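Final report, section 2: Outcomes. Of the targets proposed, FXL22 protein is the one most frequently requested by collaborating groups, and we therefore present its record in full.
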Amino acid sequence: MHITQLNQECLLHLFSFLDKNSRKNLAKTCHKLLEVFQDPLLWSLLNFHSPVELKKDNFLLGPALKHLSICWYSERVKVCNIEDWMKNNFQKDFCKRHENTVSDFLLDVCNRCPNLLSLTLSGCGHVTDDCILQLLKNCPNLKSLKLENCVRITDHTLKAVTLHGASLQTLHVDFCRNVTQAGLERVREKCPSVMLRAERSANMIPDSKPEKRLMLEKASRKLVQL
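The predicted structure is given below as tokens.
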């Protein structure tokens, strides 16, 4: 029996074991397999491991998407997640090249994936509060929001959770150093049923405190002089 003689359900099951590139390559072989690739049921779960993957055409976004993960584990993450005033020109240029990649992708998700249930972002240093706000508004069924090492996330995201996260059950803001203890307490007060975790967040030095920036700059200069 040839693979194309299998019914749609069996083909979808087989495709589910393949990565995005393999699915795309197999879809190029014949029209029937292309139809399987384009079936929304195949794309309920998407995992990405670098911003570059978001620009490829080896996946589909649509209402069937339920679970999305963008986890960027790389030395480059450290470059993107340090404060702008600490970056050298090379680091600033590097970050600028992909600054809007993840945010633009998430805005596309807002418009095309209203049934999203879970979102995990790790190392996405350029994602902003406004982006998460739009996602909460457009994906009312979101139950799990996990943010890790996202430097631009602040208490504005926590406020958006209290206003628009009616379905939210789990919220992680680990290593998001610009959220504060006051913001976390507000979530606990307004949304007591949400399982909240904020490992190494509120105790870290926020980027938004200019006086602390100045203090760190002076300390750094003294060390250089020594």
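Residues 44-224 form a domain with the Leucine-rich repeat, LRR (right-handed beta-alpha superhelix) fold (CATH 3.80.10).
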